Amino acid sequence: MLAMRPTVLMVDDHEGFRARARAMLETEGFDVVAEAATGEEGVALAADARPDVALVDLQLPDVDGFIVAERIRTAGTARLIVLISGRELSDYGDRFDGSIADSFIPKSELSGDRLRAVIG
């Protein structure tokens, strides 16, 4: 069972997006417990923060987001992994279907309600 305010780790290299997403998610009932600008930092912060949800951008400067998601899942440091991108899911072909992520949300559609639907 998740806490009253589900905890979120954001892994995205765009500081402006992280700031907007943090403000929106916290207003909509989430607690953003950590932010990372790189994949490696995201994996390390997931181990420290142990969030309910890891939001992982697919296009990171150092490591592919699919790999970051796999590392977080293997370590068991986030309950759910949601991949995000400024691109559409179809741009990634079948890669999502073969991934261990729980869901995908385009950045333009990220909202508290959309994230809550994933959490269930």
Q: Which structural class do the helices and strands define? A: alpha/beta
SSE order in H/E notation?
Answer: EHEHEHEEH
Identify the CATH architecture. 3-Layer(aba) Sandwich
**Strand runs, count:** 5
Global shape: globular
Compute the gyration radius: what is it?
Answer: 13 Å
Q: What count of structural domains?
A: 1
Question: For the residues shown, what is the average pLDDT?
Answer: 94
Overall helicity: 25-40%
N- to C-terminal distance:
10 Å
- For the largest sheet, list the strands in their spatial order: 2-1-3-4-5
> Superfamily at the CATH H level?
Response regulator
Main beta-sheet strand count, sense and barrel state: 5 strands, parallel
- Helical segment count: 4
Name of the CATH first level: Alpha Beta
Share in β-strands: 15-25%
CATH topology: Rossmann fold
**Low-pLDDT runs:** none
Quaternary structure: single chain
Can you give a write-up of this model?
The model has no long low-confidence stretch (mean pLDDT about 95). A five-stranded parallel sheet has the order 2-1-3-4-5, sandwiched between helices. The chain has one domain (about 5-120): Response regulator (Rossmann fold, 3-Layer(aba) Sandwich), CATH 3.40.50.2300. The chain has about 120 residues and is of the alpha/beta class. About 35% of the residues lie in helices and about 20% in strands. The chain has four helices and five strands, in the order βαβαβαββα. The protein has helices spanning about 15-25, 40-50, 65-75, 110-120, and strands at about 5-10, 30-35, 55, 80-85, 105. It is globular. α2 (about 40-50) packs parallel to α3 (about 65-75).
